Amino acid sequence: MSTEDSAVAFSAGVQQPAFGEGACGIGRIDYANIGRLATERRPTPALPPHARDARSLDSAAARCWTAGLLALCATGTRANRSIVDVEAWATSADGSMRLSPIPTSSDDNETELVRVDPTSARQVIGGFGAALTHSSAAVLEGMPESSRNALLRELFDPAGDVRLTVLRIALGGSDFVVDPAYTYDDMPAGEEDWDLEHFSTAADDVSLRPLLRRILEISPELTIIASPWSPPAWLKDSGRLDGGQLRDDDRAYTTYATYLSRAVADYSAAGIPIDFLTVQNEPQARFPDGYPGTDLPVRDQVRLIDALGPLLDRSEPRTEILAYDHNWSLHPADAEGVSDPETEYPSDVLTSSAAPWVDGVAYHCYAGDASRQSELHDRFPSVGIYVTECSGSHGPDEDGDHIFSNTLAWQARNLLIASLGNWASTVMTWNLALDPVGGPHVGGCATCTGVVTVDDTGSVTRNAEFYVLAHAARFIPPGSTALNTAEEGDSALSHTAFRTPSGTVVLLFNDAPDPRMTKVIVGSTETHLNIPGRSLITLRFGSTR
């Protein structure tokens, strides 16, 4: 069996007689419980009587049985482990450390043990980023030019401090706009434009497209994901941007498909190619709060993609379609009063006539959890998984310290590590930049936070989202490969790992309030570090020496 075949079988939970019997010498190991990246506390695989307390044993066999990881079984005892350059960085929920270097050591007094299988191979990473909403663009445009350029380089320069590689934009208005939302073909009440004679994306030239071009100058390989919040009101049964469905008329679907393909083509002509298009932001949010939104049931999304797919294939073949673009699970508020709540929306699209046109599925984080991604992957292993929106938020009376603490802890555990551990290739937050009161916005979220906050003097505050993204984007470039990880015992750590051009990168989050002395083993190498309470860690194993 080749290394590649071993990695595939390992991930699928298949027994590995070559490693389980020959290398460890303790019989065959059942890998079924550790085929998926650990993102929550999981039971340790059952041990034989002589290996019940693996931590107290110096036996390579007991350690191999406990971890169930190919690399450790193949390399044996600690005496054979290599010495590598290891670096670590931490951001703590109390804000005392913000992407700060922390020491590693050779002390062997750990209370936590995490193992990484460097021979495994899971999803390929697409990147990390946020949304350049119209509000974000306006806030950034309001900065002094030199400050704005410095911030954009900090965020997007491939050699910079953060190294974001993905941006999401709204095609037309969303809740995060300066002025009332618009589409690319608004008409006076009672008028229609079936030939799209009045279609124009020129409104995006005010601030959005100029900023996108500037960011592309800094990061030419930037991936752009586009999403509409609503068709023009005259294409909807409600006659409004906020709520309603596409008119039940074949002309509505063919016209809207043409509208979307023209929007993509306009952006491409403006030097801003669109890599991915979702056909509707949050299609199950049936009652948007004063901002554009569309109730798009599965049958309607399928109907629209069936019309749109061939158009994009002919005119903009670079642009791939992502289905769904909503929560991991149906939000209870979106199920109210609905006879068929369509709780398996992504799967329903992927088993429909639209499936050949769909490259992946987009998720948001506001209901359910990331394990839903693994459920989808198990059914559709060739379909890409993208987390395209997850905003920090807070109570109306919370102070800045609490907002930072709670957002960092929640996003590190549930968005970053859990999403990546459940097959996401791309992970994004929401607004790239907002003002100090979480705006500007029209309707929608009044307590959302951005990656950065920019005040009216141009001063920048780097929020928890900044550090969550930086811990991944700075160290895990596109093209990196996710690896299998596992822990021993009842761990307080969330973890995931990646093979990158510069070595193996491990992400850890200590959810406990107290520090945890932790050993991390990557194949034949190991390191030890004291992880502060409620802190996010990036650990990089570099070149062997």
UniProtKB/TrEMBL annotation:
It comes from the Bacteria. Pfam families: Glyco_hydro_30, Glyco_hydro_30C. The keyword Signal applies. Residues 479-539 form the Glycosyl hydrolase family 30 beta sandwich domain. Keywords: Glycosidase, Hydrolase, Signal. SUPFAM superfamilies: (Trans)glycosidases. This is Glucosylceramidase. Residues 125-476 form the Glycosyl hydrolase family 30 TIM-barrel domain. InterPro entries: GH, GH30_C, Glyco_hydro_30, Glyco_hydro_30_TIM-barrel, Glyco_hydro_b. Belongs to the glycosyl hydrolase 30 family.
